[in-house]
Amino acid sequence: MTTTLRPEGPETPTAAGGRTRRWRILSNGHPVGALRTTGTPHDGRLWGEISELEITEGRGRGRGTFGALAAEEVLRHWGCTRVDVKVPESAPIARALAATLGYTERMRSLHKRLTDAPALPAGLTARPMDPAALQDWLDGGTERFARSLVASGLTEDQARAKAGGGGRTLLPQGTETPGVVLSSLYGADGGPDPCGSVWVALHLRDLPDGEPLAWVMVVEVSRAHRGRGHGRALMLLAERECLAAGVRNLGLNVFADNEVAIRLYESLGYAVTDRLYGKAL
User: Fold this and answer.
1) DSSP readout, 87-132?
2) Residues 121-140 pLDDT 10s
3) pTM of whole model > 0.90?
4) What is the CATH number of the domain that holds 129?
């Protein structure tokens, strides 16, 4: 059996300045499936992604494996130094394929359908984030995000390229940027420093049913206040802010090795929707 890829259509540019193309998977010249390859620039380098992988004929014969390997060769030819695949939680066979091909789980996406606005724990109050504190908070978050990316398998350079500048780009008007919530929690002691802060994008995208999906971009408990349940309180605050804006779907990403955070989100009713796997090329 000879498995090859054939372009299904022309290569097209992406909004981020990269390149993407959809391919047919052929077995001895006969179409048996399809996939897409995408290269996205990060600090002058291309990161690859394999998506839309589907075998339509002859499943269980290794065609998905050979198709994915051929897609990796395409991405290498494009100059990609890394490849990611996002696998739905409802696709256990695809998750097994990723493991077989040497991919490591890096991140999980979770989702919750919001109903009633939860009350904050007694003694805690919420306020809009102090605009003067935003830049330091973003810089600290970028550094922590970069360290987490390195722990998930990226090189130092890859992590810096991935983490750098996102907050400033996505918040062009700072705390006054439309469509976002930047809130801080304060304790009963009345101290001037917050216990933690949360950044929520109120409309990341539309779900298939047309409803908006909000996203927790950053949630961070201040170092001096950790271990007191404030992470849970910040997530409750995020849910309250979404419901106040009329949004009933909230999602977030969490690194796969952050077991403490995963247990917290599960206890709050969040369910895994996708898993992100990656490896170096």
Assistant:
1) EETT-HHHHHHHHHTT-EEEEEEEEEE--SPPPPPTT-EEEEPPGG
2) 989 999 999 998 888 777 76
3) no
4) 3.40.630.30
Q: How far is CA 30 from the centre of its chain?
A: 36
- Last residue of one domain, picked from the residues 36, 68, 100: 100
Q: In terms of residues, how long is the chain?
A: 281
- 241 within 8 A of 201, measured Cβ to Cβ: no
Q: Which among 130, 119, 156, 102 is positioned nearest to 281, based on CA atoms?
A: 102
Residue-by-residue DSSP string for 153-205: T--HHHHHHHHTTHHHHH-TTGGG-TTEEEEEEE-TT--SS-SEEEEEEEEEE
pLDDT per residue over 38-97, tens digit each?
Answer: 999 877 788 999 999 999 987 878 899 999 999 999 999 999 999 999 999 999 989 999
Residue 106 resides in a domain: no
